[in-house]
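Table 4 source record.
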Amino acid sequence: MPHIAALLITSVFSVAAFAADTRPPEVAYPEGYRNWHHVKSMVINSGHPLFDTFGGLHHVYANTKAQTGYAQGRFPDGAVIVFDLLDVNVADSTIQEGDRKLIGVMSKDAKKYAATGGWGFEGFKGDTRERLVTQANAEGCFGCHTGQEQSDFVFSKARR
C-alpha cells in the first residue's frame, strides 16, 4: 500500500509540474514606463469599432529595445511597448487626460510567446496591477494584431 500512495503522490506532482510548465508566462508590469521614449499619442473617439474597449486617449511608450524595433521594423526580444489608456475630459474647448483606464503591454520574447507571434500581451486595470488580460486569453489580443504581421504585429508607428 505505501508503494501505491507514493506512486499516486508522484503522479499528482508530475501532472502539476506539467501543467505549470505548459502555462504561458505572465507579462511583467512595466516599471517606470512613463520615463521611456514617447512614441505617439492618439484618441479613439465614439464611432470607432474599438471605442467600447479602448476609447479614450492613448500614449504609447517604448523601452530602448522597442525603439530599435520601430527603427528596423522587427522587434528584438526584450522589446516592451506600453499603451497608457486614459479617459478623456472635454472642458473649455480643450481635451484633457482623465482617469487611467488601463495600461496595455506587449512584451517580445520569441521563445516564451511563440504561439502569439513572439509577443506576450497583458493589461493592468487603472492605476493598479490587477491583470485584465491573462495569458490564457492572450490569443484574442493576438488575433487583432495578426493583420499587422508586416510590422511584427505592432499597430503603432514611430513619429519621425
